[in-house]
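Treating backbone geometry as a discrete language has practical consequences that deserve illustration. Part of our work consisted of pairing the sequence of a single chain with a tokenised description of its backbone. What the numbers capture is local backbone geometry rather than side-chain detail. For completeness, the protein is quoted in full, as a sequence line and a line of structure tokens:
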Amino acid sequence: MKAYVMIRIRAGEVKEVVAHLRKITGVKEAHMTFGPYDAVAVVETEDVAKLGQITASEIQPIPGVEQTLTCLAVDVSARGLLRAKSKSALAKTWLGGG
């Protein structure tokens, strides 16, 4: 499972927070950003429970972190969409609509 954790950071502490993020197991990338959030961490875990644990226990307690927003990455490859369409067609058939 892959997620992007957008992070608001207290002024003057971005460099230290990003350096700390890069040391966390499961954080594959961490970068300063421009816009409403000051940094983004790319997190990869085996499940949503581990993602929640990393966010709540390792990212949010970093000194300077004020707020986080976690966005789950979704696979929209052609194969994934084909599977979704096939399931939808199958459901219509089972429900008498196709």
